[in-house]
Design brief:
There is one protein chain. The strands form two sheets. This protein has a three-stranded parallel sheet, sandwiched between helices. It has a two-stranded parallel ribbon with strand order 3-4. It is mainly alpha-helical. It has six helices and five strands; from the N terminus they run αβαββαβαβαα. The longest helix is centred in the N-terminal third of the chain and has 19 residues.
Length: about 140
């Protein structure tokens, strides 16, 4: 850790699928939830060293990972983000003064931002209904 502290302020960023909103039958949301938990733990652990840890939550990004992938979620929500848009959001999120209060989780794109806001104010049964609708399960 000394090399990070000696190098000055650092902000590692993890990129995970938007977890706790759209769950998939193949368990993708479990991996995203694990990344979310790891990010929160690292942020708490490394804060005292002046290192801020964040994560980015895009829905689906038009990269080789989703080329040819046809799922109910991609059919319902579409693939509207490019890698350059995610990179620009990472850059913006790591600049000082972007938000009044520092945040750990950063939804990327309009859909993820709306879903993140909805998750904060809707009961679990509404979230489950939304997941069923999006994933056609």
């Amino acid at each position: 850790m000394r090399w990070s502290v000696a190098a000055g302020p650092a902000e590692p960023a993890t990129v995970a699928a938007f977890c706790n909103t759209v769950r998939t039958a193949n368990g993708g949301s479990h991996l995203s939830a694990a990344v979310r938990g790891l990010t929160e733990a690292l942020e708490l652990e490394w804060r005292r060293h002046g290192i801020r840890v964040i994560d980015m939550w895009p829905l689906f990004v038009a990269t080789g990972m989703v080329d040819g992938v046809e799922t109910a979620s991609t059919a319902s929500l579409g693939v509207h983000l490019g890698a350059d848009e995610v990179a620009a959001e990472i850059y913006a999120a790591t600049r000082p003064g972007r938000h009044l209060l520092p945040r750990v989780h950063h939804p990327v794109g309009r859909q993820a931002t709306v879903l993140a806001a909805m998750v904060q104010v809707t009961p679990n049964w509404v979230q489950r209904l939304m997941n069923k609708t999006v994933t056609h399960t």
